[in-house]
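re the bet — no i am not wrong, look at it urself. input seq straight from the record:
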Amino acid sequence: MHALAAARAASRWFQAALGLRSEHDKDEYEMLMDGDDTVVQLHHWDVHHHPHLGDLTDLLRGNDLLRGNDVMWWFQMADFDVILRYGSRAGRRYRRLFL
């Protein structure tokens, strides 16, 4: 699950960039699917008062600047070129790196 300020906007980006399908389509929560597989869940920071989704000390002080920092996404897919095509349609440019 990824907590963020704009779940619906992020959902639209993931759908366009990765070709995912919305299963929930709400402002506060989204579940994005690839066929029958859940790929990512998006949750609005402030809905349902889940302080454990961020740094509790900063949240209690009203400082939300640290939300979302140091997040790394890992996607594993069978056909990387398909993802590049979806990303191009979403207006994104990618650079392929080989490690």
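see?? Residues 5 and 28 are 9 Å apart (CA to CA). told u. also The longest strand covers residues 37-44. so pay up
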